[in-house]
Write a structure and sequence with these properties.
The chain is of the alpha+beta class. About 80% of the residues lie in helices and about 10% in strands.
Length: about 550
């Protein structure tokens, strides 16, 4: 079974020179399953001598026997890459789940909105149905009025024809009477039969004009009923107009206002996201600068002939001065082997990093020459290689620093050994350079950059909070905008006002036509009334004339 272990070397003793203790950290249960070890489990082996203390290795152990020990760099890198991809997939799944939740929430809200709209539309349709029923009743009344007006007009036509016929007959009799009056007493004026016939015609003429007054009363009643219908039509027209274009205009205005508010929120979000990206970039730059400063400080300290305080704390100079030369030489040799192993390992990693860089360049060339289909596959491969290169490059920074530290420790051990052996170090011909001010300034810069880094992290968190606070209003405003747009589109389509106009237009035309027809009937009845007046005068004159002629006939008969 394979274990992830940490190399632990104990100083002192002859056993420590050949045996190395491995502290077991985790064991592999399956290809992608590692389980942390409980407690403090360790094994001793002589197969890990080339690894420095604190190094991570992969040890294959059967029972308590260590079969093989290999560097853990590549397996750990692969595990980290696999974990990174798994995290990205999980994040994508979480994003998908969140989108599904939002979609379901939006669909639920949309369904509730549609239900409310259907209920409102049902109420509007119910009201429209009632209004249409009232309109239908009013149209029936108008139709009845029109039929009555037509009957009145027909009666007026009949009366007019009867009056014209009687008038013609009466005019003929008048002419006959006048002729007889001019003839004098020659043959007598009228006999009794002729008098009765004339009286009958006069009565018929008088009776024929009695219906004119009734017709005028009917026309007046029809006018009153028609005038009562127009205010109702005007009210329906007002409802149709207020329920149509006015509602649509207000709905689109609400949509435009909501759109302006959403654009403002999105603009603020975009500005915050740009600010967040800039702060993250500045944070990464400061972190790289701090790492570079730490490495530079160690290198300058080494050039100045001094030792970094953190490294100096790892060396017990009193113990080195007190131990025998043989033990000190063994310590120096151990440090030399430790440095050589680290040096070889770092060189191997540098070579692998160089090969990966070369592979990246070759992939870029292949992508530039590939077709569209192959380019997609190669770009995915390039992204994986760049990720692997980035992880290895980041790990190399700490490894280079470890190599520099072990070189500095080896130099200090060698200096102590040379001094105790009586060797005098050869002074260089070049004058020594005082790097103290440079190191002091570098230390101040490092502290200042660390302070800036903390401030940047705080500001970045504040910007992230602002962005999260605005995500909710943006989503809410987006849903509101879609809802208002749908309402605005529905406001002008299929509204009851359209149905009102469809019914009201022919009814209004019918009322106008009926009013013109009644106006013509009124004018005709006025003319008939005037004719009736003249007709009455004529009838009265004819009766008087007939009475006189009848009296003359009676006198003639008596004589």
């Amino acid at each position: 079974m394979q274990y992830l272990a940490e190399v632990q070397k104990k100083s002192g003793g002859l056993l420590g020179a050949s045996k190395v203790e491995l502290r077991l950290i985790a064991c592999q249960r399956s290809e992608d399953n590692w389980q942390a070890m409980a407690g403090n489990n360790s094994v001793v082996t002589d197969k890990a001598g080339e690894f420095g203390s604190g190094s991570l290795v992969i040890a294959e152990i059967a029972g308590n026997d260590v079969k093989r020990v290999n560097a853990a760099t590549q397996p750990v890198l692969k595990i980290l890459q696999h974990y990174s991809r798994l995290q990205e997939k999980l994040k994508d799944k979480d994003d998908d789940i969140e989108q599904w939740k939002q979609s379901l929430t939006y669909q639920s809200q949309e369904l509730n909105r549609r239900v409310m709209e259907v209920e409102v539309r049902e109420e509007e349709l119910q009201q429209a149905s009632e209004e249409l029923a009232r309109l239908e009743q009013q149209r029936t009344e108008v139709t009845v009025l029109r039929e009555e007006a037509q009957r009145a007009q027909a009666e007026i036509e009949v009366k007019n024809q009867e009056i014209a016929a009687t008038w013609a007959q009466l005019d003929q009799e008048k002419q006959n009477l006048e002729s007889r009056l001019q003839e004098g007493h020659g043959g007598g004026l009228l006999d009794e039969a002729q008098v009765r016939a004339l009286e009958a015609q006069i009565r018929q003429l008088a009776d024929s004009s009695h219906g004119v007054g009734d017709l005028q009363s009917q026309v007046a009643v029809l006018f009153d009923r028609l005038d009562a219908q127009q205010p109702l039509l005007d009210q329906h027209w007002q409802q149709a107009e207020s329920g149509g274009e006015g509602g649509a205009v207000e709905a689109w205005q609400a949509w435009a206002d909501c759109l302006a508010e959403l654009e403002q929120l999105k603009g603020e979000m975009a500005g915050l996201q740009r600010e967040l990206a800039a702060k993250k970039q500045a944070t990464e730059s400061l972190q790289r600068q701090l790492k570079a400063n730490n490495l530079l400080r160690q290198q300058l300290t080494h050039l100045a002939g001094g030792l970094d305080p953190e490294l100096a704390a790892q060396i017990n100079f009193q113990e080195l001065e007190a131990m025998s030369l043989e033990e000190l030489e063994a310590k120096v040799q151990e440090r030399q082997r430790d440095y050589d192993r680290t040096f070889n390992f770092v060189n191997d990693q540098e070579e692998e990093l160089r090969l990966q860089q070369q592979a990246l360049e070759e992939l870029k060339v292949r992508i530039a020459e590939a077709n569209e289909f192959d380019r997609l596959t190669l770009e995915t491969e390039l992204a994986d290689e760049q990720e692997s290169y980035g992880i290895l490059d980041d790990s190399m920074f700490d490894q280079r620093r470890t190599l520099s530290e072990r070189r500095a420790l080896l130099n200090e051990y060698q200096k102590v050994l040379a001094r105790r052996q009586g060797q005098v170090p050869v002074e260089g011909v070049a004058p020594s350079i005082d790097l103290g001010p440079v190191l002091a300034q570098l230390e101040m810069d490092t502290k200042q950059q660390s302070q800036w880094l903390e401030e940047l992290k705080t500001e970045t968190q504040a910007v992230e909070v602002k962005i999260r606070d605005r995500e909710g209003p943006v989503a809410t405003k987006t849903e509101e905008l879609a809802r208002l747009k749908q309402q605005a589109q529905n406001a002008g389509n299929g509204h009851p006002g359209d149905t009102y106009r469809t019914v009201l237009s022919p009814m209004q035309e019918m009322v106008h036509g009926l009013r013109e027809q009644l106006q013509a009937l009124s004018e005709t009845s006025d003319r008939l009334q005037e004719a009736r007046h003249y007709q009455g005068q004529l009838v009265e004159g004819m009766r008087q004339m007939l009475s006189e002629m009848s009296g003359s006939n009676h006198l003639s008969a008596v004589a």
